[in-house]
Amino acid sequence: MSAKLRICFLINPNSGTDRRQNVPALLAQYLPAEAVDYEVRPTQYAGHAVELARQAAAEGFRIVVAVGGDGTVNEVGRGLLGTQAALGILPRGSGNGLARHLQVPLALPAAIRQLANPAFQRIDVGYINERPFFCTAGLGFDAHVSRCFAQAGTRGLGTYVQVALREYRRFRPTAITVTMQDKTFATSCYVLAFANAAQYGNNAYIAPLADISDGLLDLCLIDALPLWRAVRVSVGLALGNLPASGAAVYHTCSQVQVQAAQALGFHVDGDYVGDAREFAVTLEPLALEVAVPARYTEIVT
Ligand SMILES: Nc1ncnc2c1ncn2[C@@H]1O[C@H](COP(=O)(O)OP(=O)(O)OP(=O)(O)O)[C@@H](O)[C@H]1O
């Protein structure tokens, strides 16, 4: 008889907008006891999931599952770097960007069932000023909105859109110099996004062609955002055709440096980190193993 699959679930009790679901009860209902041994551990503070994930990997769990949104996924993924354990996701955030990219079902019963019999795959890991990211990182307006969103008191797409519209009227671009491969160019940064996965979350496709295992980041630059272009960007994000819309410029590369004329905010996986004037962005190919639905195949051809 083969050994049972050992899974550790790390639950962020604060993530998402719907906290009515009783995750331990759903696990008991949908995980087959004959195939899986599991434990459930709640996080007690921001950053706790990094330590809990590292500890679970050291205890020999094969999969450590982030039960939350992209912030929780980032913490668990960070804790698992360099270990033998794979990252799993039970999407319970407000955006769920990485879960959506990896085609993890958004309905918890289905997501739980697939964890009992997953496929394993390796994904690239991005770094911005040494902070790992798995989905997207970025400078400028998206980071500024992440900071305001964190202070808003309520979460969810509605709050996010409200904050973005309010800040759109105030935000001004910053002059930057970008160096990648053998070219350097000066431009202006309204948004500079570094995409490992295709979307921010909520099916907002900032880089619909991004392949999470290709050893490359997709850079999306929006140098200014007058109203007509804001409309095209919004439609492009929703329809997944931003590259074809001409409202943003794209590059692919495995490392890039950015110097800003004044301090610029940056985010990793949707969480504001801080302000800086210099940014070093790199990619470590296939540095993290993830447990994905057995039918998962990279959408990009
Ligand atoms: N016990 C806790 N108490 C307070 N904050 C926590 C706790 N556990 C985790 N956090 C923090 O909560 C933040 C938000 O969580 P998360 O990103 O998972 O949810 P979300 O913001 O609702 O989803 P998404 O990122 O998909 O929009 C994370 O950055 C994490 O550091």
TrEMBL record:
Which residue windows are coiled coil?
Answer: none
GO BP annotations, alphabetical order: phospholipid biosynthetic process
UniProt-recorded Gene Ontology molecular function terms: ATP binding; kinase activity; metal ion binding
Check the record and name the Pfam families matching this protein: DAGK_cat (PF00781), YegS_C (PF19279)
* Organism domain of life: Bacteria
Keyword list (alphabetical) reads: ATP-binding, Kinase, Lipid biosynthesis, Lipid metabolism, Magnesium, Metal-binding, Nucleotide-binding, Phospholipid biosynthesis, Phospholipid metabolism, Transferase
List residues of the DAGKc domain.
2-132
* Name of this chain's protein: Diacylglycerol kinase family lipid kinase
Q: Which organism is it from?
A: Hymenobacter elongatus
